[in-house]
Design brief:
It comes from Rhamnella rubrinervis. α2 runs parallel beside α7, α3 crosses α6 and α8 packs parallel to α10. By secondary structure, the protein is α/β, with parallel strands linked by helices. It folds into 2 domains: about 140 residues, Aspartate Aminotransferase, domain 1; about 200 residues, Aspartate Aminotransferase, domain 2, CATH 3.40.640.10. About 45% of the residues are buried. The protein is globular and about 60 Å long. The structure holds 4'-deoxy-4'-aminopyridoxal-5'-phosphate. The site of 4'-deoxy-4'-aminopyridoxal-5'-phosphate has 13 residues, from α3.
Amino acid sequence: RLFLPTSSSSVTAPSEVEDDGKRIINLDHGDPTMYEKYWQKMGEKTTIVIPGWQSMSYFSDVKNLCWFLEPEFAKQVVRLHKVVGNAQTEGRHIVVGTGSSQLFLAALFALSPTNGSEPMSVVSASPYYSSYPSMTDYQKSGLYKWAGDAQSFNKPGPYIELVTSPNNPDGFARHSMVNRTGGILVHDLAYYWPQYTPISYQADHDLTLFTVSKTTGHAGIRIGWALVKDVEIAKRMTKFIELNTIGVSKDSQLRAAKVLKVVADSCEQSGSSEYTESFFEFNYHLMAQRWQQLREAVNASGVFSLPGFPPAYCNFHGHILEPQPAFAWLRCENNTEDCESYLRGHKILARGGRHFGVEPNYVRVSMLDRDDNFGAFLKRLSMFQS
Ligand code: PMP
């Protein structure tokens, strides 16, 4: 049984969008503004008030290894993972970060030996998240160094492998790809939530990164969290954040805690007068509708193709469903070598394959923008003909 899109969360139909072909449609970033619609519906449910005398100290919980972690934020992280069933939190240390971006750097710092004769190699299978190479190398660290595609990596010695699942940009579920032992894995599960993909297993890795940005759409709060098994690694990640920013905004953690609480409440009280459907159901339907419209427009164009995804049983929704990723990974089928430039010629801004370590006949388009922008994109696609 596949979930079908409902009308309760309808997308503006392309036919309703005005498009003279001149407007620039920017779908380059994965800015999750699509979610504004849900949070507008929720009205004051996530509003918090912080008096001037509150949250003044640097410290949140001096008994916790991560001393700047707000207990209420930690509580809601554990609760939400339990409600969704996407990650094991027992026996884990939670480290909070200014987005999962800061935690990514904290993880590289924590996992690299301090006395290594050369920098630790950092790899990920292509197409990989375009920020990994630049974030790894921009400070020219002596501790770690970007070493490219995990599939062709064959340098002896230790390495860090980034496993992004579902993957940004192509949306596929992933496992480690380096064909040998001796690697340390960092799982970036930013998109392992039920609006994007079937929750088919409870993640149980050594070091896992999540972010509020892609969970609830609150990218601007700048909060992410890591679930870390090894106490020494968790301590070193905490040390990195101490050296980098002396902790993480308490205001942001409190706001994130409230948002995660409302998401968990919406799941537990789905079908009640308070929450007719959960956050994930509402946005699952929205994504399903967008993907259906996109596939129709892409097929009609004859110019592009999209990957197909195997359906799987989702423990959260209780149905078999198809993945519907946060990005569309389009391939140009018209002998255009540079798909990014081709789209730019039609005033559509998107990120070409080269940024992700693959051929430029691929391009990544955000599926998480506001209705009017996404609708304009569909309308513009309908003007393409092979
Ligand atoms: N990992 C992946 C795979 C992402 O796509 C993103 C956001 N584009 C991030 C990490 C960073 O998220 P943030 O810093 O907003 O938490």
